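Exercise: predict the fold of this chain.
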Amino acid sequence: MIQITVKPYQDLSTKELYALLQLRSEVFVVEQDCVYQDIDGKDQKALHILGYKNGNLIAYSRVFAPGDYFKEASIGRVVVKASERKHQYGYDIMKASIKAIEKQFKETTIKVSAQTYLKRFYNTLGFFEVGEEYLEDGIPHVAMIKS
């Protein structure tokens, strides 16, 4: 089981910010061998969904109000530490992200830019593909909407 905390950027401690940036870099830059600008100036507008196990950050996402990233509310940077994926914490962090959007922004329509290989994962959470596959930072993605 993981403990989930939801915080706006200004409430993140230096330690929390460092941990989330380290986890994102560990997975999106190193593991996926993708050179891209993770620190994109959007974290300040996001709500941060932090998943802890034994005091360590092992799952994370960030969510946005409608208009702050996409026209719709959105979820991005969904990540689970490689060693913890067998526990399916991705579902926990996504469910917490959806709940945070519904509670904080009173929204039920949510968009994600999903890595194509994760389509089935997002389908099980109520997201469906819209439009064609595209490359984002050299990785195949597809836009998906839950409404």
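Check your answer against the key: Residues 3-146 form a domain with the Aminopeptidase fold (CATH 3.40.630.30).
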